[in-house]
């Protein structure tokens, strides 16, 4: 009895220790019956099951008439091995009491009925937690971020586990529980690759100036060590010099390309920042990205737009084939592009632009106070609450929010020549821009939250997919009129505005700058 009471205390402590917001739990449904075998079965006190405060667990054992189910050695060993290897999937074995469960297993033949019941319940509870984390992540993004709107994933862990249990195919459910997305699988490969690197003992690179080909700089010895470590440079450490030679120049360009930097061979602040990442930091970055991909839907729509915010890219995928690729401009760290899933609804040619509250407060009002012609120079008209045009000289700077500010359509409109609308709570959309030179920049975190698209009229023609009604010449003719025109998108396209900073290609790790500073913080919360 004392042992059972001690077990209760341990379980209560474990269940109360969670301070990090876990993934939202979908209300469990009645579980299918568990097919029992002839191994030793013990009746479990419902107080033990209820101590975990898990309705899912209660329903699981209701399917076994509150008897132990893990009498089969092979099934137990499989679960224990999966929990021990959780780190290979970017999870933490300690989250699933891996060591404690292994200790139970080593003395399985000596356990009394109470201890055996405790072990059985802990196996179920932790394996179901493991499967849930694999499917939908450990944390809940809605509790972490204000600007993340993802569709909640449903996962009936009891049905999945019991079907695998009854069919004696637990190994297949671990695979089928995870995302099928190529990027997720590439991240798992990245984790494998980074774990193959030796421990990193290279000191931090210190240099305050740009380094170009044929320069001499003492920092180059450490830079070359870093390039050798990450296999962008080949050779021997004992032959390194402080001269920026051609071989190192080519290695730097390879490194820059893998990190989404301008592959010009110039070693500047961005390249040094990327070089100074340690193995452990890159591993943590990969793990943070794995968690994010578990938040996203496991299955994609048949046709979709996907924006990777840190990569400044938009891909159109139709029937599993990438048909269009575009550079994009995304929000700054201060005015982030929100993470969301939606459906494209309308193309607007020759859009007007109404100045949003944030831009009004931070940009327009200060500029108007300096120069009353600021808005007129940008073809922006001021309207009062009755819809009357207001002369800039009569504008009241003390009540700027009592007006509406609308920019006329045209080539220099802030939204450019078109925008694409989709339902969301952030008043954002995809659109053209009057700053078309931005697409030539390497760092394109420059907008106020919306996503700006390169060559948008060609994209519109592709979406509308009607060579007669919406040919290039027809669209061009419409643009010339400067008449605002709304066109409903008949083809169903989902939109995924997501955020990932790591993946792999051809056995090489690929990284992007964490422009919104999310990776390290997310990893810390995962390991809290």
From TrEMBL:
PROSITE patterns linked to this entry: LD_TPASE, PROKAR_LIPOPROTEIN
Pathway membership: Cell wall biogenesis; peptidoglycan biosynthesis
GO biological process, one term: peptidoglycan biosynthetic process
GO MF entries: carboxypeptidase activity; transferase activity
InterPro entries documented for this protein: LD-transpeptidase_YkuD-like (IPR052905), LD_TPept_cat_dom (IPR005490), LD_TPept_scaffold_dom (IPR045380), Peptidoglycan-bd-like (IPR002477), PGBD-like_sf (IPR036365), PGBDSf (IPR036366), Transpep_catalytic_dom (IPR038063)
Domain of life assignment: Bacteria
Active site, per annotation: 431 (proton donor/acceptor), 450 (nucleophile)
Alphabetized UniProt keyword annotations: Cell shape, Cell wall biogenesis/degradation, Peptidoglycan synthesis, Transferase
Residues of the L,D-TPase catalytic domain: 303-478
Transferase listed as a keyword: yes
Similarity remark: Belongs to the YkuD family.
Protein's recorded name: L,D-transpeptidase family protein
Organism of derivation: Flavobacterium hydrocarbonoxydans
